[in-house]
Amino acid sequence: MAHQLVIVLDFGGQYNQLIARRVRECGVYCEVRSYKTPIEEIKKLNPMGIIFTGGPNSVYDEKSPSISVEIFNIGIPILGICYGCHLMAHVLGGKVSSCITSEYGKTETVYDRSCILFGGVSDMPEKAVSWMSHTDYILEMPAGFKSTAHTDNCPVAAMENKEKKLYAVQFHPEVNHTEYGLGMIDSFLKNVCGCIGDWTMGNYAKTAIEDVRNKVGNGKVLLALSGGVDSSVAAALLSKAVGNQLTCIFVDHGFMRKNEGDEVEAAFADWDINFVRVNAKDQFMAKLNGVSDPETKRKTIGEEFIRVFEQEAKKIGAVDYLVQGTIYPDVIESGAGDAAVIKSHHNVGGLPDYVDFKEIIEPLRLLFKDEVRALGRELGLSNVLVDRQPFPGPGLAIRIIGEITDEKLKILQDADYIFREEIAKAGLDKSIHQYFAVLTNMRSVGVMGDGRTYDYTLALRAVTTTDFMTADFAKIPYDVLETASSRIVNEVKSINRVVYDVTTKPPATIEWE
Question: DSSP characters for 3-64?
Protein backbone atom coordinates (compact mmCIF):
# COMPACT_ATOMS: atom_id res chain seq x y z
CA MET A 1 0.00 0.00 0.00
CA ALA A 2 1.47 3.36 -1.06
CA HIS A 3 0.98 6.08 1.52
CA GLN A 4 0.67 9.77 0.82
CA LEU A 5 4.08 11.32 1.49
CA VAL A 6 5.27 14.58 3.00
CA ILE A 7 8.97 15.42 2.91
CA VAL A 8 10.74 17.16 5.79
CA LEU A 9 13.79 18.89 4.32
CA ASP A 10 16.47 19.11 6.98
CA PHE A 11 18.56 22.28 7.22
CA GLY A 12 20.41 21.17 10.34
CA GLY A 13 17.61 21.83 12.81
CA GLN A 14 17.62 20.27 16.25
CA TYR A 15 13.89 19.56 15.93
CA ASN A 16 13.96 17.68 12.62
CA GLN A 17 12.87 14.41 14.23
CA LEU A 18 10.20 16.16 16.25
CA ILE A 19 8.69 17.75 13.13
CA ALA A 20 8.53 14.34 11.48
CA ARG A 21 6.94 12.81 14.56
CA ARG A 22 4.28 15.52 14.64
CA VAL A 23 3.45 14.89 10.98
CA ARG A 24 3.11 11.17 11.72
CA GLU A 25 0.87 11.99 14.71
CA CYS A 26 -1.47 13.63 12.22
CA GLY A 27 -1.73 10.32 10.38
CA VAL A 28 0.50 11.37 7.48
CA TYR A 29 3.61 9.47 6.44
CA CYS A 30 6.75 11.57 6.11
CA GLU A 31 10.47 11.14 5.58
CA VAL A 32 13.37 13.37 6.59
CA ARG A 33 15.61 14.23 3.64
CA SER A 34 18.63 16.48 3.24
CA TYR A 35 18.14 19.95 1.78
CA LYS A 36 20.70 18.79 -0.78
CA THR A 37 18.20 16.31 -2.27
CA PRO A 38 17.98 17.09 -6.01
CA ILE A 39 14.76 18.71 -7.23
CA GLU A 40 14.26 15.91 -9.77
CA GLU A 41 14.40 13.32 -6.98
CA ILE A 42 11.82 15.27 -4.98
CA LYS A 43 9.54 15.38 -8.03
CA LYS A 44 9.83 11.60 -8.46
CA LEU A 45 8.81 11.08 -4.83
CA ASN A 46 5.63 13.01 -5.64
CA PRO A 47 5.10 14.41 -2.13
CA MET A 48 1.84 16.01 -1.07
CA GLY A 49 3.81 18.71 0.73
CA ILE A 50 7.24 19.83 1.90
CA ILE A 51 8.30 21.20 5.29
CA PHE A 52 11.55 23.13 5.75
CA THR A 53 13.10 22.64 9.20
CA GLY A 54 14.81 25.23 11.34
CA GLY A 55 18.58 25.47 11.63
CA PRO A 56 21.33 27.30 13.51
CA ASN A 57 22.53 29.45 10.60
CA SER A 58 21.70 32.85 9.14
CA VAL A 59 20.45 32.86 5.56
CA TYR A 60 22.62 35.83 4.57
CA ASP A 61 25.78 33.86 5.41
CA GLU A 62 27.10 32.49 2.11
CA LYS A 63 28.12 29.21 3.77
CA SER A 64 24.64 28.54 5.16
CA PRO A 65 22.39 25.81 3.73
CA SER A 66 20.25 27.06 0.88
CA ILE A 67 17.96 25.75 -1.82
CA SER A 68 17.09 26.47 -5.44
CA VAL A 69 14.24 28.86 -6.18
CA GLU A 70 12.90 26.12 -8.46
CA ILE A 71 11.41 24.23 -5.52
CA PHE A 72 8.89 27.03 -5.02
CA ASN A 73 7.67 26.73 -8.62
CA ILE A 74 6.82 23.02 -8.88
CA GLY A 75 3.36 23.38 -7.36
CA ILE A 76 3.97 21.50 -4.10
CA PRO A 77 2.73 23.22 -0.90
CA ILE A 78 5.59 24.27 1.39
CA LEU A 79 5.72 25.18 5.08
CA GLY A 80 8.89 26.86 6.32
CA ILE A 81 9.69 26.78 10.04
CA CYS A 82 12.13 29.24 11.68
CA TYR A 83 15.25 29.05 9.47
CA GLY A 84 12.99 27.56 6.82
CA CYS A 85 10.81 30.64 7.12
CA HIS A 86 13.83 32.94 6.64
CA LEU A 87 15.04 30.85 3.72
CA MET A 88 11.71 31.11 1.93
CA ALA A 89 11.74 34.89 2.32
CA HIS A 90 15.41 35.20 1.31
CA VAL A 91 15.31 32.99 -1.80
CA LEU A 92 12.08 34.58 -3.06
CA GLY A 93 13.44 38.14 -2.87
CA GLY A 94 12.54 39.27 0.63
CA LYS A 95 14.98 40.64 3.18
CA VAL A 96 16.14 38.96 6.38
CA SER A 97 18.03 40.92 9.02
CA SER A 98 19.26 40.66 12.59
CA CYS A 99 16.60 41.37 15.19
CA ILE A 100 16.68 44.54 17.23
CA THR A 101 15.30 42.40 20.04
CA SER A 102 15.77 38.63 19.82
CA GLU A 103 13.00 36.34 20.98
CA TYR A 104 13.50 33.13 22.92
CA GLY A 105 10.95 30.95 24.66
CA LYS A 106 7.24 31.47 25.20
CA THR A 107 6.00 34.53 23.34
CA GLU A 108 2.48 35.95 23.06
CA THR A 109 1.57 35.94 19.39
CA VAL A 110 -1.31 37.54 17.50
CA TYR A 111 -2.69 35.40 14.66
CA ASP A 112 -4.68 36.29 11.55
CA ARG A 113 -7.47 33.72 11.61
CA SER A 114 -8.16 34.28 7.91
CA CYS A 115 -4.96 32.27 7.25
CA ILE A 116 -5.85 28.59 6.80
CA LEU A 117 -2.98 27.52 9.10
CA PHE A 118 -4.70 29.18 12.04
CA GLY A 119 -8.33 29.43 10.93
CA GLY A 120 -8.33 25.70 10.28
CA VAL A 121 -7.67 25.00 13.96
CA SER A 122 -10.90 24.74 15.93
CA ASP A 123 -11.20 26.89 19.05
CA MET A 124 -7.91 28.66 18.38
CA PRO A 125 -8.04 32.28 19.65
CA GLU A 126 -6.45 35.29 17.96
CA LYS A 127 -3.84 35.50 20.74
CA ALA A 128 -1.85 32.49 21.98
CA VAL A 129 1.63 31.53 23.10
CA SER A 130 4.23 30.37 20.56
CA TRP A 131 7.78 29.10 21.12
CA MET A 132 10.35 31.42 19.58
CA SER A 133 14.09 30.88 19.14
CA HIS A 134 15.60 33.40 16.74
CA THR A 135 18.08 36.25 16.37
CA ASP A 136 17.05 37.07 12.76
CA TYR A 137 13.69 38.17 11.44
CA ILE A 138 11.96 39.01 8.17
CA LEU A 139 12.45 42.69 7.52
CA GLU A 140 10.75 42.68 4.11
CA MET A 141 8.46 39.96 2.77
CA PRO A 142 8.77 38.69 -0.81
CA ALA A 143 6.28 39.89 -3.42
CA GLY A 144 2.91 38.14 -3.13
CA PHE A 145 3.17 37.44 0.61
CA LYS A 146 1.26 38.91 3.52
CA SER A 147 1.94 38.75 7.25
CA THR A 148 -0.43 36.43 9.11
CA ALA A 149 0.96 36.67 12.66
CA HIS A 150 3.00 39.10 14.71
CA THR A 151 4.46 39.68 18.18
CA ASP A 152 5.56 42.85 19.94
CA ASN A 153 9.07 42.46 18.48
CA CYS A 154 8.44 40.48 15.30
CA PRO A 155 6.14 42.03 12.66
CA VAL A 156 6.24 38.87 10.51
CA ALA A 157 5.82 35.92 12.88
CA ALA A 158 4.09 34.11 10.01
CA MET A 159 3.44 34.80 6.34
CA GLU A 160 1.61 33.25 3.41
CA ASN A 161 1.32 33.31 -0.33
CA LYS A 162 -2.07 31.68 -0.57
CA GLU A 163 -2.07 31.47 -4.37
CA LYS A 164 1.18 29.44 -4.47
CA LYS A 165 0.39 27.53 -1.24
CA LEU A 166 3.54 28.80 0.45
CA TYR A 167 3.41 29.25 4.22
CA ALA A 168 6.04 30.13 6.79
CA VAL A 169 6.18 30.56 10.56
CA GLN A 170 8.93 32.19 12.62
CA PHE A 171 8.10 30.09 15.69
CA HIS A 172 8.22 26.32 16.27
CA PRO A 173 4.75 24.73 16.01
CA GLU A 174 6.25 21.27 16.55
CA VAL A 175 7.16 21.88 20.22
CA ASN A 176 4.57 21.46 22.95
CA HIS A 177 5.18 24.99 24.24
CA THR A 178 3.47 26.42 21.13
CA GLU A 179 -0.23 26.41 21.89
CA TYR A 180 -2.29 24.85 19.05
CA GLY A 181 0.97 24.01 17.25
CA LEU A 182 -0.04 20.46 16.34
CA GLY A 183 -3.33 21.82 15.02
CA MET A 184 -1.41 24.24 12.76
CA ILE A 185 0.66 21.37 11.34
CA ASP A 186 -2.48 19.28 10.88
CA SER A 187 -4.21 22.17 9.10
CA PHE A 188 -1.28 22.52 6.70
CA LEU A 189 -1.30 18.80 5.98
CA LYS A 190 -5.07 18.36 5.60
CA ASN A 191 -6.36 21.76 4.44
CA VAL A 192 -3.42 22.92 2.31
CA CYS A 193 -1.76 19.70 1.09
CA GLY A 194 -4.95 17.65 0.87
CA CYS A 195 -3.61 14.71 2.91
CA ILE A 196 -6.25 12.24 4.09
CA GLY A 197 -4.26 10.77 6.99
CA ASP A 198 -3.76 7.20 5.77
CA TRP A 199 -0.73 6.40 7.94
CA THR A 200 -1.82 3.94 10.66
CA MET A 201 -0.01 1.12 12.40
CA GLY A 202 -2.71 -1.29 11.23
CA ASN A 203 -1.96 -0.45 7.60
CA TYR A 204 1.78 -0.47 8.23
CA ALA A 205 1.67 -3.88 9.90
CA LYS A 206 -0.16 -5.46 6.94
CA THR A 207 2.25 -3.94 4.42
CA ALA A 208 5.40 -4.81 6.41
CA ILE A 209 4.32 -8.41 7.00
CA GLU A 210 3.61 -8.90 3.31
CA ASP A 211 6.92 -7.29 2.28
CA VAL A 212 8.93 -9.53 4.64
CA ARG A 213 7.04 -12.64 3.52
CA ASN A 214 7.74 -11.89 -0.14
CA LYS A 215 11.42 -11.17 0.53
CA VAL A 216 12.17 -14.18 2.72
CA GLY A 217 10.27 -16.85 0.82
CA ASN A 218 11.43 -20.17 2.28
CA GLY A 219 14.63 -18.75 3.81
CA LYS A 220 15.83 -18.90 7.41
CA VAL A 221 15.83 -15.77 9.55
CA LEU A 222 17.89 -15.04 12.67
CA LEU A 223 17.21 -12.34 15.26
CA ALA A 224 19.15 -11.39 18.39
CA LEU A 225 16.38 -10.76 20.91
CA SER A 226 17.29 -8.51 23.83
CA GLY A 227 13.82 -8.27 25.32
CA GLY A 228 13.80 -4.55 24.57
CA VAL A 229 10.91 -2.87 22.75
CA ASP A 230 12.52 -2.71 19.30
CA SER A 231 13.79 -6.29 19.07
CA SER A 232 10.58 -7.66 20.62
CA VAL A 233 8.36 -5.86 18.12
CA ALA A 234 10.63 -6.91 15.25
CA ALA A 235 10.33 -10.52 16.46
CA ALA A 236 6.55 -10.29 16.64
CA LEU A 237 6.34 -8.88 13.12
CA LEU A 238 8.69 -11.51 11.69
CA SER A 239 6.71 -14.21 13.47
CA LYS A 240 3.53 -13.07 11.73
CA ALA A 241 5.36 -13.00 8.42
CA VAL A 242 7.42 -16.22 8.37
CA GLY A 243 6.51 -18.21 11.48
CA ASN A 244 8.95 -20.95 12.46
CA GLN A 245 11.41 -19.92 9.76
CA LEU A 246 12.49 -17.37 12.40
CA THR A 247 14.87 -18.20 15.20
CA CYS A 248 15.21 -15.71 18.07
CA ILE A 249 18.24 -15.99 20.31
CA PHE A 250 17.67 -14.36 23.69
CA VAL A 251 21.00 -14.03 25.46
CA ASP A 252 20.18 -13.59 29.16
CA HIS A 253 23.40 -12.21 30.63
CA GLY A 254 21.97 -12.33 34.15
CA PHE A 255 21.78 -8.56 34.56
CA MET A 256 18.09 -8.19 33.75
CA ARG A 257 15.66 -6.73 36.25
CA LYS A 258 13.89 -9.07 38.67
CA ASN A 259 11.86 -11.73 36.81
CA GLU A 260 12.49 -9.97 33.49
CA GLY A 261 14.17 -12.87 31.72
CA ASP A 262 11.20 -15.10 32.54
CA GLU A 263 8.77 -12.39 31.40
CA VAL A 264 10.50 -12.12 28.03
CA GLU A 265 10.41 -15.88 27.56
CA ALA A 266 6.74 -16.07 28.59
CA ALA A 267 5.80 -13.27 26.18
CA PHE A 268 6.98 -15.36 23.22
CA ALA A 269 5.88 -18.77 24.51
CA ASP A 270 2.86 -18.97 22.19
CA TRP A 271 4.48 -17.38 19.13
CA ASP A 272 5.21 -19.56 16.11
CA ILE A 273 8.97 -19.05 16.29
CA ASN A 274 12.03 -20.96 17.41
CA PHE A 275 12.86 -19.24 20.68
CA VAL A 276 16.25 -19.99 22.21
CA ARG A 277 17.02 -18.64 25.67
CA VAL A 278 20.66 -18.80 26.67
CA ASN A 279 21.22 -18.42 30.41
CA ALA A 280 24.78 -17.13 30.32
CA LYS A 281 25.07 -15.37 33.67
CA ASP A 282 28.01 -17.47 34.88
CA GLN A 283 29.89 -16.81 31.65
CA PHE A 284 29.39 -13.05 31.93
CA MET A 285 30.19 -12.93 35.64
CA ALA A 286 33.46 -14.74 35.03
CA LYS A 287 34.48 -12.12 32.45
CA LEU A 288 33.57 -9.29 34.85
CA ASN A 289 35.40 -10.69 37.85
CA GLY A 290 37.31 -7.80 39.46
CA VAL A 291 36.09 -5.22 36.92
CA SER A 292 34.96 -1.87 38.38
CA ASP A 293 35.42 0.64 35.56
CA PRO A 294 32.04 1.34 33.88
CA GLU A 295 33.40 1.64 30.34
CA THR A 296 35.27 -1.65 30.73
CA LYS A 297 32.05 -3.26 31.96
CA ARG A 298 30.18 -2.04 28.88
CA LYS A 299 32.83 -3.23 26.43
CA THR A 300 33.26 -6.58 28.14
CA ILE A 301 29.53 -7.28 28.17
CA GLY A 302 29.11 -6.16 24.56
CA GLU A 303 31.92 -8.39 23.34
CA GLU A 304 30.77 -11.38 25.36
CA PHE A 305 27.23 -10.98 24.04
CA ILE A 306 28.58 -11.41 20.51
CA ARG A 307 30.60 -14.46 21.56
CA VAL A 308 27.51 -16.14 23.05
CA PHE A 309 25.44 -15.17 20.03
CA GLU A 310 28.08 -16.72 17.78
CA GLN A 311 28.10 -19.96 19.78
CA GLU A 312 24.33 -20.35 19.52
CA ALA A 313 24.05 -19.26 15.89
CA LYS A 314 26.54 -21.95 14.86
CA LYS A 315 24.11 -24.57 16.10
CA ILE A 316 21.44 -23.32 13.70
CA GLY A 317 23.51 -23.64 10.56
CA ALA A 318 23.26 -21.49 7.43
CA VAL A 319 21.04 -18.44 7.84
CA ASP A 320 19.63 -16.47 4.91
CA TYR A 321 18.57 -13.27 6.63
CA LEU A 322 19.54 -11.38 9.77
CA VAL A 323 17.05 -9.03 11.46
CA GLN A 324 18.04 -5.72 13.06
CA GLY A 325 15.82 -3.56 15.22
CA THR A 326 16.95 -0.31 13.57
CA ILE A 327 14.38 2.47 13.99
CA TYR A 328 14.03 5.80 12.20
CA PRO A 329 15.92 7.96 14.76
CA ASP A 330 18.89 5.58 14.30
CA VAL A 331 18.83 6.35 10.57
CA ILE A 332 18.52 10.11 11.10
CA GLU A 333 21.18 10.27 13.83
CA SER A 334 23.59 8.37 11.62
CA GLY A 335 23.82 11.34 9.33
CA ALA A 336 20.65 12.19 7.45
CA GLY A 337 20.32 15.76 6.31
CA ASP A 338 22.92 18.39 7.09
CA ALA A 339 22.81 17.82 10.83
CA ALA A 340 25.86 16.54 12.66
CA VAL A 341 26.29 12.80 12.99
CA ILE A 342 25.22 12.20 16.59
CA LYS A 343 26.22 8.54 16.65
CA SER A 344 26.62 5.85 14.03
CA HIS A 345 24.22 3.04 14.78
CA HIS A 346 24.93 -0.59 14.09
CA ASN A 347 22.27 -2.52 15.91
CA VAL A 348 23.82 -5.94 15.71
CA GLY A 349 27.28 -4.59 16.56
CA GLY A 350 29.97 -6.98 15.37
CA LEU A 351 28.16 -9.44 13.12
CA PRO A 352 29.61 -12.97 13.15
CA ASP A 353 31.62 -13.63 9.99
CA TYR A 354 30.28 -17.16 9.58
CA VAL A 355 26.60 -16.14 9.30
CA ASP A 356 25.99 -16.51 5.59
CA PHE A 357 23.04 -14.17 5.08
CA LYS A 358 21.75 -12.69 1.85
CA GLU A 359 20.48 -9.50 3.39
CA ILE A 360 19.78 -7.63 6.62
CA ILE A 361 16.08 -7.04 7.26
CA GLU A 362 15.14 -3.87 9.15
CA PRO A 363 11.33 -3.89 9.41
CA LEU A 364 11.19 -0.93 11.83
CA ARG A 365 13.60 1.47 10.12
CA LEU A 366 10.75 3.82 9.10
CA LEU A 367 9.27 4.09 12.61
CA PHE A 368 9.79 6.35 15.61
CA LYS A 369 9.82 4.79 19.10
CA ASP A 370 6.20 5.70 19.86
CA GLU A 371 5.17 4.13 16.55
CA VAL A 372 7.14 0.99 17.37
CA ARG A 373 5.17 0.70 20.62
CA ALA A 374 1.89 1.21 18.73
CA LEU A 375 2.90 -1.46 16.23
CA GLY A 376 3.71 -3.84 19.08
CA ARG A 377 0.18 -3.43 20.45
CA GLU A 378 -1.22 -3.95 16.95
CA LEU A 379 0.72 -7.23 16.73
CA GLY A 380 -0.55 -8.44 20.11
CA LEU A 381 2.52 -7.98 22.30
CA SER A 382 1.90 -7.62 26.03
CA ASN A 383 2.10 -4.21 27.69
CA VAL A 384 4.99 -5.55 29.79
CA LEU A 385 7.15 -5.56 26.67
CA VAL A 386 5.58 -2.71 24.68
CA ASP A 387 5.78 -0.21 27.55
CA ARG A 388 9.21 -1.34 28.71
CA GLN A 389 11.38 1.61 29.61
CA PRO A 390 14.74 2.22 27.98
CA PHE A 391 17.13 -0.26 29.55
CA PRO A 392 20.89 -0.24 28.95
CA GLY A 393 22.35 -3.20 27.09
CA PRO A 394 24.68 -4.06 30.00
CA GLY A 395 21.61 -4.00 32.26
CA LEU A 396 22.03 -3.79 36.02
CA ALA A 397 25.78 -4.28 35.64
CA ILE A 398 26.14 -0.52 35.16
CA ARG A 399 23.65 0.27 37.91
CA ILE A 400 25.96 -1.40 40.42
CA ILE A 401 28.79 1.01 41.15
CA GLY A 402 32.08 -0.83 41.34
CA GLU A 403 32.67 -4.55 41.10
CA ILE A 404 29.68 -6.82 40.47
CA THR A 405 28.93 -9.73 42.78
CA ASP A 406 25.99 -12.12 43.05
CA GLU A 407 25.10 -10.54 46.39
CA LYS A 408 25.02 -7.01 44.97
CA LEU A 409 23.00 -8.14 41.97
CA LYS A 410 20.35 -9.76 44.19
CA ILE A 411 20.20 -6.65 46.42
CA LEU A 412 19.68 -4.34 43.44
CA GLN A 413 17.10 -6.56 41.73
CA ASP A 414 14.98 -6.68 44.89
CA ALA A 415 15.30 -2.96 45.67
CA ASP A 416 14.65 -1.90 42.08
CA TYR A 417 11.56 -4.13 41.96
CA ILE A 418 10.11 -2.46 45.07
CA PHE A 419 10.75 1.04 43.69
CA ARG A 420 9.10 0.23 40.36
CA GLU A 421 6.20 -1.42 42.14
CA GLU A 422 5.54 1.65 44.31
CA ILE A 423 5.76 3.99 41.29
CA ALA A 424 3.14 1.85 39.53
CA LYS A 425 0.90 1.73 42.63
CA ALA A 426 0.97 5.53 42.76
CA GLY A 427 -0.10 5.72 39.11
CA LEU A 428 3.12 7.48 38.10
CA ASP A 429 4.48 4.82 35.76
CA LYS A 430 3.06 6.50 32.64
CA SER A 431 4.15 10.05 33.47
CA ILE A 432 7.73 9.25 34.56
CA HIS A 433 9.77 8.29 31.51
CA GLN A 434 12.51 6.33 33.25
CA TYR A 435 12.94 5.25 36.87
CA PHE A 436 15.28 2.79 38.51
CA ALA A 437 17.55 2.08 41.48
CA VAL A 438 21.34 2.29 41.65
CA LEU A 439 23.40 0.38 44.19
CA THR A 440 26.28 2.62 45.22
CA ASN A 441 29.56 1.30 46.59
CA MET A 442 29.22 3.58 49.60
CA ARG A 443 28.47 2.15 53.03
CA SER A 444 27.25 4.15 55.99
CA VAL A 445 26.35 3.63 59.63
CA GLY A 446 22.73 2.98 60.53
CA VAL A 447 20.58 1.62 63.34
CA MET A 448 18.08 -1.21 63.00
CA GLY A 449 16.41 -2.44 66.14
CA ASP A 450 18.96 -1.93 68.86
CA GLY A 451 21.92 -2.78 66.65
CA ARG A 452 24.43 -0.85 64.61
CA THR A 453 24.52 -1.49 60.86
CA TYR A 454 27.11 -0.65 58.27
CA ASP A 455 25.42 -1.24 54.94
CA TYR A 456 24.98 0.04 51.39
CA THR A 457 23.39 3.28 50.30
CA LEU A 458 20.83 2.88 47.49
CA ALA A 459 20.09 5.75 45.11
CA LEU A 460 16.74 6.16 43.36
CA ARG A 461 16.66 7.87 39.97
CA ALA A 462 13.55 9.02 38.06
CA VAL A 463 13.37 11.48 35.16
CA THR A 464 10.90 13.14 32.84
CA THR A 465 11.98 13.90 29.30
CA THR A 466 10.73 14.24 25.73
CA ASP A 467 13.84 13.11 23.88
CA PHE A 468 16.29 11.66 26.48
CA MET A 469 18.83 14.23 25.29
CA THR A 470 17.87 16.45 28.23
CA ALA A 471 15.94 15.39 31.32
CA ASP A 472 14.57 16.75 34.56
CA PHE A 473 14.32 14.77 37.78
CA ALA A 474 10.76 13.64 38.43
CA LYS A 475 8.93 15.46 41.21
CA ILE A 476 7.77 12.30 42.96
CA PRO A 477 5.50 13.02 45.95
CA TYR A 478 7.27 12.65 49.27
CA ASP A 479 4.83 10.01 50.53
CA VAL A 480 5.63 7.76 47.55
CA LEU A 481 9.37 8.14 48.14
CA GLU A 482 8.85 7.53 51.85
CA THR A 483 6.93 4.31 51.23
CA ALA A 484 9.50 3.04 48.72
CA SER A 485 12.38 3.90 51.04
CA SER A 486 10.75 2.26 54.06
CA ARG A 487 9.99 -0.93 52.16
CA ILE A 488 13.48 -1.17 50.67
CA VAL A 489 15.25 -0.73 54.01
CA ASN A 490 12.94 -3.19 55.74
CA GLU A 491 12.62 -5.83 53.01
CA VAL A 492 16.04 -5.84 51.38
CA LYS A 493 19.03 -6.96 53.40
CA SER A 494 22.25 -4.92 53.37
CA ILE A 495 20.63 -1.51 52.61
CA ASN A 496 20.26 0.98 55.45
CA ARG A 497 20.05 4.29 53.57
CA VAL A 498 18.08 5.46 50.52
CA VAL A 499 18.75 8.73 48.67
CA TYR A 500 16.95 10.38 45.72
CA ASP A 501 18.88 11.87 42.79
CA VAL A 502 17.66 15.42 42.05
CA THR A 503 20.13 16.22 39.27
CA THR A 504 19.05 17.24 35.77
CA LYS A 505 20.62 16.14 32.49
CA PRO A 506 22.88 17.99 31.84
CA PRO A 507 25.06 18.25 33.88
CA ALA A 508 24.43 14.62 34.91
CA THR A 509 23.52 11.73 32.63
CA ILE A 510 20.40 9.67 33.24
CA GLU A 511 22.39 6.54 34.07
CA TRP A 512 25.07 6.72 36.76
CA GLU A 513 27.62 4.71 34.78
Answer: PPEEEEEESS-TTHHHHHHHHHHTT-EEEEEETTS-HHHHHHH--SEEEE---SS-TTSTTS
